[in-house]
Each structure stands twice: as structure tokens, then as C-alpha cells.
Amino acid sequence: MNLPSPDWAQAPFTGLSRAHWEAAADEQIAAAKRYSSPRGAQVHFPSVYEQSPDELLEGFARTFLLAALRLSGAAGDGGPAAEVTAQLAQWYAQALDAGTDPSSDERWPKLTAHSQTTVEATAVALGLHLSRKWIWAVVPQRVRDNTAAWLGDSAQSFGADNNHVMFAATIQAFLGSAGYAYDGAGIEAALARIEDWYVGDGWYSDGEGRRFDHYNAWTFHVYPFFILDLLGEDAATGRRKVYRDRLGQFVHGYSHLFGANGAPLIQGRSLLYRWGVAAPFWMAMREGITVVSPGQTRRIASGVLKYFLDGGAAPDGVLTLGWHETNSSILQSYNAPGSPQWAAKGFLGLLLPADHPVWTEQEQPLPVEQGDYTLPMSGPGWLAVGTAATGTVRVLNAGSDGHPQKDDPLYRRLAFSTSTVPWLEPGSGERDNDIFIRHDGSSSRHRGLHGGSVRSGGGSSTFALDAAGRDVLVQNSFAVLDGVEVRAAKLTGVVGLTPALSGYLCSTDAAPETLVNGGGAQVGIKPGALSSVLLLEATAEAEPHVVHGEGTILGAHSGLPLLQFPPLASNELTLMALIGLDVTLARLRSMALELQWQWAPDGVQLRFRNRTVVLPWQRKATWPADSINQGVFRWNPPEN
């Protein structure tokens, strides 16, 4: 991607200024126009298959949102910006007409229940709101009426009972703001529904259960503010203050989940939305929330943009289906060539004027660049761990479970990081960062968390395993000592089974070096690609070894250190181990010499460098994981 020369004076960490963001947006918009249909209402991004009408709309809608942000941000600047504004407005006014005219060859699909069309229509509605005076206000009344008729079907549709409730609500709020009939009760029902999922610390679950991921960043802390804008809601209602308070809490914790290289946490679905994770930081600035300073906000956002652009995520302005380059391992079934363009939400900063402090103040360092930390995040049940020496951030997980009925590696792992990827090879039977049962090339199924909590420097959780039809209960507890993870566990119901405990999956471009001996295993040789495990004590002998895997989004090769137990003669197994990320096996051995411990009925008591640390079992099972299914959301107003 062709960007201006770096501005190291104002951006000493990334070199990126507002001009770089504008140039990046322009190149992506230009790419969308290159692949557009004659009148612009469909975008045919390169694909090996024939795309559906919904997918062609997706390519248009998401890049239109980006164009609307660019148009609104350039308005009134004069000079070249005025030309940008005029060209964009003309192009997208034509596309709007072509997409909503019932007689057009480029007309968009109807909005129906549980359809992708409603998702994409939300981007269109929000884009029209943001570019209102340049497009909506100047197109003929016929185009406005056709558009309103197309959007209006969202009132009769229903969608997934998760973040999708925000989509129809946003569309209906736009219709109301434009003077058309709208479903006010449906909007209120959607805003009420997300309250059911709020768990504290600014975090929402993405539907029923414990589904925590980046959808908090690019959905739950974005749409409610725009909905209130569209409704023209008076501040006296207090609802905006509630959302602002939550956003402030969220960005404070979320700012601790970015690596020094700009990488966001590799966890959760839709990772190909990439710099969409910057959206809540820009929204906080827009709402006057400065818990994360303007300089640090730009450092986070520009760091993420630079991380992906430098990695080759947008050749010629077209975002690839992957993380950096094209890679299908992190894709979901709903991903299409236009899907990555939800990254447009990461450009919300363009709505802020060029003289806003977020653009004029010098970049400030990330939390992980200021020193080591362990930050408990009680809402999602995460312990954020930052290591300044390597710039890597980890999350030790006692609360994220994903979809209740899906054993997804991007959610159900004991830890995630900004420099490692979960083992994503289907059918391999291996699991990174987990306690599981291995047998004949397969592994147990994680049936969901029963309960969990985090505290200063540690946490605990309880979950169940389905080991080929047998129930195994796992009580897990962890602590972070001098940057090293201590994990203790008690497994019940394991007689005759073969448990295993694994560390981080290490990804490298060259075949990773391995070391296996004396109760421990190590894979990799350098920071960012080094993982190790060491058994401290267990009620059975374990064999350490390294399992080699396929390439990941971070490297052409991968390796996983783990401890494997033989078929057990007892129904209970207790174990304690050290887990290292960017830590050698030799350092784990050295640390083990400084540790003393004593088992107790309710966990383990540790002594380390004159510190006493307790690793207790979780005593309260609070989450009915196995009983929850994803439903559908539909507001049914009472009949007259």
C-alpha cells in the first residue's frame, strides 16, 4: 500500500499520521471501485467462486461505510478534500439508486429473516447517516423512497440473538431520523436485550452464555451511540451516560490487550476484521472519554493498522481473507471476499477533525511498553498479562466460553496471546493451552465452563470434559509469578484415561527447534516463537514431548509442547506445572528450585521468594453452560 513518508516526530512509535489513515482509506475505496459493477451497487472482489447477491452487497456496503467516514472526515477542508468529497458523493449516490431501484439489474436482495442482507443494510444505513448532507440530502426523492422501502423490511425480520440485534435497530433508527415510519418498540427491545448480556468492566457477552471477543469492540460499543444519535435522545434520559461509563471501563482494560508490535489478541471469531478493533478507542474520543489519552489512542489504532499493512493484509487495497496474507485457517463459514471490509469501523477516527488532540498530540506508549502488568478483568473472567521485554500480551482465561454448544479453540482455551494462535487443525486431536484427554488421535470435548473468577495475579475455573462419552470434571487454578504461569489442576473421573496438559502453540517460518527432557518440553528459540512446559508434581508420571503441526497465520510451521500421562490407575489426578511463553525450559527449571508448595483439599499453597500464593479450586458453579442454545431475536409488539 502506498502511504506518505513516516511522521516520526508526532508518531514516534508507528510513524503514522492522519494523512496515512486517509491514504489507506483512499486506496481501499479505490480498490472497491475497481471491482464494482457498472453503476457501483455491487462489488465483485476477487474470488474463486461465483458470489451470491448477498456477498456482492457485502462488498459494496462495508466499503461504502468506509467511504462515508472518509467523505464526512474530509468535508469542509477545501482543496483536495473538496474534490474527494464531490467524487465520493457522486459515485455513491449513483450506486444507491442502482441498488434500491426495483427495476435495476444491480438491485440489492430483500431484507429477510436471519439474512446477511440485514447485516449489510446496516452498513448502508449508517453510511447514509454519516454522509447525510452529501448523499441522502441531494439524491432525488424517488431514491430516498426506494431506499426506505428496502430498509423497511428490517422491521419484520428476525436475526441471531446476539450482536445482530443491533442491526435492525440501527436501520430502524435511521428511518426514523429520515422522517419515515420506524419500529421504535423494536429499537427499545434491542437496547434492552443487550442489557441481559452486560457482565461488568464494560464487557458484553455476544448472546447467551460466556461469549467474549472483539465484537465488544466493533459492535457493542459502536452501534448504541449511533442509535442514540439517530433517535436524537435527550441526555437527560441518562442512557448515553451509561454507555459512556461502560465504554470508558472497556477501553481502559482493552488497551492492555495489544502487543507492542500492534497485534491484537488472537482470540474469538471474525479475526479478519483486523483494525476494526480500533473502533471503541475512536468512539471514546468522539464521546469525550479520555481514560485512554488521545496520544495513546492513536498509538493503539495506528499500531494495529501498521501491523496488518506491513504484514501484507491489503495488497492493492483489497483486504485478504486471512490475518496478514490469505489464510483460511481463521475463517468462519459466513466469510466471503467482502467480509474483511468490516475493518472500515477502525476508521471511525476520521470523523474527528484534523485539529482534534487525537491527531495533534504525540503518540504515547502502550501499557505493555510502559512495564509488566497483571490486570484482572472480572467481566470476561480474564487476567491480562503484559511482558515489556518482549512486548507480548497474554490473557489467562477463566471466563470465556464462546457459543455454549461449540467447542471452539478460539474461545475454550486456558490462555491466548498476541503472538500465538490456538491449534486450529480440525480432527487432529491436539489442543493448545488446555487440560484434555488424548486417545487414538482424538481428544476430549470441552463441554463448557461451570464457573470461574480472576483475582490479582491469578484465577480459577471449573469445567467438564466429554471423553468419548465419559464425564471428567476439571478444577483448574493458575497464578503468574515473575512472568511465568503456574497451573494446578485436579481431574476427577479419569481412571483408565490418558490426560494431557499443553502450553502455547509456537509458530515459526522455519522448522522450530525442540528440546525434551527431565519432565519438560520446549519448542522454538526466540521471543515471539518460544513455548515451554515443565511438570512440577503430579500423582502419576507424565512424559513430555512436542507435537508438530501445520502452518498458522503466524508461520509456516508450528509446534506444541505438552505433558502426556499414561492410562491412569486412579480415578483422580492432581498436577502442577509451569508454563512459559518466550521463556526457556532452563528458566522454568531455575524457577522450580525457588518454589515450595503444599497441597490442600481446596487447592495449592505456594511459597515463592518470600511470597505466599494460593491457587484455590473454584467452589461455585454459576454458569449453566450445557443448557444454553443460541436463539433468535424478534420483537413482537402487541396486536391492536
What does this structure look like?
By secondary structure, the chain is of the alpha+beta class. It has 2 domains: 18-365, Alpha/alpha barrel (Glycosyltransferase), CATH 1.50.10; 381-622, Beta-galactosidase, Chain A, domain 5 (Distorted Sandwich), CATH 2.70.98.70. It contains 15 helices and 25 strands. It has helices at residues 18-34, 53-74, 80-100, 116-130, 141-152, 165-177, 184-195, 215-220, 223-231, 239-254, 279-286, 294-310, 357-360, 367-370, 585-592; strands at 159-160, 198-200, 203-204, 373-377, 382-387, 392-397, 415-417, 435-439, 442-443, 445-455, 458-467, 470-481, 484-492, 499-502, 506-508, 514-517, 520-526, 529-538, 543-549, 557-564, 572-581, 595-600, 603-608, 611-616, 632-633. The strands form 6 sheets. An 8-stranded antiparallel β-sheet has the order 10-11-12-13-21-18-17-16, covered by helices on one side. Strands 8, 9, 14, 15, 19 and 20 form a 6-stranded antiparallel β-sheet that branches. Helix 2 runs parallel beside helix 4 (116-130), helix 6 runs parallel beside helix 9 and helix 11 packs antiparallel against helix 12. The termini are far apart.
Lay out the secondary structure.
Blueprint: H1 18-34, H2 53-74, H3 80-100, H4 116-130, H5 141-152, E1 159-160, H6 165-177, H7 184-195, E2 198-200, E3 203-204, H8 215-220, H9 223-231, H10 239-254, H11 279-286, H12 294-310, H13 357-360, H14 367-370, E4 373-377, E5 382-387, E6 392-397, E7 415-417, E8 435-439, E9 442-443, E10 445-455, E11 458-467, E12 470-481, E13 484-492, E14 499-502, E15 506-508, E16 514-517, E17 520-526, E18 529-538, E19 543-549, E20 557-564, E21 572-581, H15 585-592, E22 595-600, E23 603-608, E24 611-616, E25 632-633
Antiparallel strand pairs: 1-25, 2-3, 4-5, 5-6, 6-7, 8-9, 8-14, 10-11, 11-12, 12-13, 13-21, 14-20, 15-20, 16-17, 17-18, 18-21, 19-20, 22-23, 23-24
